[in-house]
Amino acid sequence: MLRIRRFEERCVELYSAAKIRGFVHLYIGEEAVAVGANEALTAEDAVVATYREHGHALARGITAEAVMAEMYGKATGCSGGRGGSMHLFDAGRRFYGGNAIVAGGLPLAAGLALADRLRGQSRVTCCFFGDGAYAEGEFHETANLAALWGLPLLFVCENNLYAMGTAIERHEAQTDLALRAASYGMAAWAVDGMDVEAVERAARRAAESIRGGGGPHFLEMRTYRFRAHSMYDPDRYRDKAEIEQWKARDPITRLMERMREDGEPVEKQLTAIERRIAEEIEAAVEAAERAPEEPVENLLRYVTSAPMGVT
Fold first, then answer.
1. Residue 35 Cα distances to 3, 27, 61, 131, angstroms
2. For residues 154 and 21, what is the distance between their CA atoms, to the nearest angstrom?
3. Distance between CA atoms of residues 229 and 234, nearest Å
4. What DSSP string describes 92-156?
5. Strand pairing partners for 163?
6. CB within 8 A of 6, min separation 6: which ones?
7. What is the per-residue pLDDT across 55-113, written as a single tens digit (0 to 9) for each?
8. Beta strand pairing status for 166-167 and 162-163?
């Protein structure tokens, strides 16, 4: 969680210095969801994420160097510099985006889960998405098919209460998202998304049930983003007191307090962790600065297919 937090804080500095361009959506405050859920997955499972996916990518094991280079748009980035902040991708780690279209990853996740089921492979596809995506037809179509076909799909809804600048009570008649998801005939429940241990327990329980043939599961992670929707967002739609109330439930601070209660030497561990992360992130920035741009002659590569001869 600290790696994600410090990585994104550094990205804010780099964005302000015009080193990183385009859209950037920060995950600060929601780190417990990505970390806890990934702890319950194996290397063989698949992960599909949203455009707010830096945390998911780092938790999945993509290196800070590969992610930072992608943020810079460099050829050494995990997507070859072609994706940027919103399209992180690493097929080797079965991390399939980073999808800029709201709810766009859900049908892809269903396809991956269906492929695993048809091959008889005991794997889980975990799809992260927000409460805004819940309002899209893609979610309901995917949920219906996943339940109908018994797909090994774990829906992880990161309910941070705002779809961009729209509060959930203004776009959902029923704000208990887990209750509505259960209407599709799948197991569904809400989780404290600010508690990494609670997230891990819920995700593990769901993943084990899915592997056992229990069909799709839905977890509503009740969480909160401490920063605005994106770096362009002036964030005038939220009460500052509300933000501070949620910051009091910071998932990193809560875990540290629990560790202290258990008698662990938190301060000593924290100093070592912070030092290691700082060195890792600075090395990633330096590597991104040195990394090459993609050659101009590759501009149309992967855009169009090779001409086909006509006989």
1. 10, 12, 11, 19
2. 33
3. 9
4. GGTB-----STTTHHHHHHHHHHHHHHHT----EEEEEEHHHHTSHHHHHHHHHHHHHT--EEEE
5. 166
6. 274, 277, 278, 281
7. 999 999 999 999 999 999 999 999 999 999 999 999 999 999 999 999 999 999 999 99
8. antiparallel
Tell me the C-alpha distance between 40 and 58, whole Å.
15
Contact 217, 41 (CB under 8 A): no
DSSP secondary structure string, 3-38?
Answer: HHHHHHHHHHHHHHTTSS-S-----TT-HHHHHHHH
Within 13 Å and on the Cβ side, how many CA atoms surround 9?
13
158: left (phi over 0), alpha (psi -120 to 50) or beta: beta
Statement: the pTM of the whole predicted model exceeds 0.90: yes
Residue 153 one-letter amino acid: L
